[in-house]
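Possible regression after last week's pipeline update?

I re-ran a chain I had predicted before the update to compare outputs. Posting the input and the new output here so someone can diff against the archived version. Not blocking, just want to make sure nothing changed silently.
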Amino acid sequence: TNTVVREQHQTTEASGKQTEEEQSSSEDSTEASQATELRLVQGWPDESSVGHLGQVAGVGMDSSGNVVIFHRGDHVWDAWTFDSEKQYKDRAKGPISTNTVITLNPQTGKSIHQWGKDFFYLPHGLTLDHQDNVWVTDVAMHQVFKFPPRGGDKPLLTLGEKFVPDWSTDHFCQPTDVAVEKSGDFYVSDGYCNSRVLKFDKTGKLLAVLGEVSHKRHAEHGFSLATQMVIPHSLALAEDRKQVCTADRENGRVVCFNTETGKPVRTIQHPEFGKRLFAISYSPAQGGLLHAVNGPTDPPQTPVQGFTMTFDDGEIIDTWPEKAFQNPHDVTCASHNSAVYVVEIGPNKVWKLEPSKDQPWVKKGDGSSHGSTADNPPPTLLQEIGGNLREDLSTTLIIATVLVVPLIIVVIIAAVVRCRASGNLRFDKRKKSTLKSWMNGYKEKHQNGGLFTNKKGFQRVKTEDSDHEEDPLTDSEVEEYNAVRSV
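New output (post-update):
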């Protein structure tokens, strides 16, 4: 069985000359260092206005900057939701009876508009295109839908056959997300069973299959190519870079394809991701940024958190937040500002993060960087003072040594001269007196005075360990129980 090798850090790109546009974009990416670290906005959203949320699976933003979330109401994806053939087992319960799509004010967090009741069974991905049409996926129905702005009872476009999972190109098997170009062409990550990305024109006609693994080959031989995926879980479209990227969840990496050729161009993988990467989102701001969230593992191996990377080189420039996420499932970012939104499926939460005003983003892993990172925090005031004191003390010791040593020599010479003048230092004609003989005589003369009397030194201090580092294991809920664990 072949498996994907996880290197400590992997960023590969297809060979070829860089266009002038790509070179310019690469230069612009350095502007990202001027941004600031993301911090949670407390009290957002307004829970009293939003109402009770189920597992929050998807999040997106419309052209006005409003935040749109997609949740599962009283339906839950657990170990008994699907059979071995990926058939949804809870059809008898009917669709979710409450509104599943909620639009939130980005400032106040209050609900602006809600819709989507009595239609969906198990919501997953949500995307809004440039005309604010709402694209969603339902993993129980194995379908993809396009709704008009503000939703409605009837979709404008439906792909896939209801409750029929299949690997053929006119079917889906638990599709996860959608990304839409300005032209209207769109991509679907499909998904939990087929592990591929499909490209369609605006009418729903299939144009290409990206990263396809045939059903037969998957069953017999597993994944043999480095770009073959295990659950493409989320999509991020960078039209200005001519790339569409997916969070290759169970491989813990990002895989990017060229939007014109459909060929893979690079992968991004960091040890900080861990084994599972759940979602990604692209922003053209600051030279191009890629936001991502990883997910829990059992047992826990890496912190569950978010990442901000420069798009061109995939380097991590920020991790966020500090011990807040448990089961992040999707992420989106605003194109007109630096806000980032994350949704979770347990606990069922929506998070807003905004840049802080005090600490700059500095690329991590750069040994020559003098800025602050999570692994190299900025020095505190006491540390700075301590450093200055050490420098001043070193200078003082050097000066003292230069001045004191000659002074000691002068004192010794003066003492010898004085002793000779007082007659305490006599020369024996038969044996020349030396400073050594004088010292021996002086020792015998004053041995009762205690100058050379043996004294007990300091007792060795016993030290014992007082701090013990603990590594408690904590339980974490792992979503989608039919996820592929090995290939």
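Follow-up from reviewer: compared with the archived run. The first helix runs from residue 20 to 28. Marking as no regression found.
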